[in-house]
C-alpha cells in the first residue's frame, strides 16, 4: 500500500515479532488439543491462496458444477480405478432371476416363553394365582407373534397358549408348568 503523503510503501500487513515468540513461523503444525481431523487455520491452503482472486478454483466455473460427474457416475469409465479397487463386484449380475421368489415372504415374529406372562395384565395374573382350577388363555397371535420359543423360565402356574408354531423346548416348558399348547391357523 502506498503512503499518500510520501509515496513510500507501507509495511502495514507484515507479521511482526510478538513478545515471547520468535518472528519466524514454524514449518510444521504444532500439536494441540484440537479435535482430531481439524487443522490449524494458518496452515490451511485457503490462507496460502488469499489474494489470488479465484482461490485456485478458476475464473469461469467459480467452483460450480461437478467436474467428475454427479454421484456415482463414471464407475465404468473415468472413475473405473476407484470402483475396481474399493468396490469390486459393484456392476453386473450373477445367476438367474427367480420371478416367483419372494425374498422376505416368510417372516415369523417370535416370542420367548419368559415373555408370555407379561402379555397378561397384572390383575389377571393375581386372579389366576388365587383360582388355580382355572387357567388364562394367552393368545400370542393377537399380540402380533406367531411362534413361541423356549428361552427363559415359567412360573408354576397353568395357562393355555395359542400360537401358530411352538418349538419342542417351549412346548415342554409350558406342559411342565401345567399348561397347554394350542395350535391355531
Automatic annotation (TrEMBL):
It comes from the Eukaryota. It holds the Pfam family Ribosomal_L27A. GO terms for biological process: translation. The keyword Ribosomal protein applies. InterPro entries: Ribosomal_uL15, Ribosomal_uL15/eL18, Ribosomal_uL15/eL18_sf. GO terms for molecular function: structural constituent of ribosome. SUPFAM superfamilies: Ribosomal proteins L15p and L18e. Residues 20-81 are annotated as: Disordered. GO terms for cellular component: cytosolic large ribosomal subunit. Keywords: Ribonucleoprotein, Ribosomal protein. Residues 110-182 form the Large ribosomal subunit protein uL15/eL18 domain. Belongs to the universal ribosomal protein uL15 family. This is Large ribosomal subunit protein uL15/eL18 domain-containing protein.
